[in-house]
Write a structure and sequence with these properties.
Blueprint lengths: L2 H11 L3 H12 L8 H14 L7
């Protein structure tokens, strides 16, 4: 799979959400500690359950 296709696919599926969040924290809140990957995904899924948006299921 080409690099650009991987980049596109990870953006579409949300697989790059942790990397984007860490980049945001470092850019906007440089002194804030970064969460672990598992903590990030646990909180992301918990937030999705607390605040459902339009989704198929």
């Amino acid at each position: 799979m080409s690099r650009s296709l991987r980049w596109f696919w990870s953006g579409v599926t949300g697989a790059d959400a942790y990397d984007r969040y860490c980049a945001h924290l470092q850019r906007v809140h440089p002194g804030c500690p970064l969460p672990t990957k598992s903590d990030f995904w646990r909180e992301k899924y918990a937030e999705m359950e607390r605040n459902p948006k339009s989704r198929c299921c």
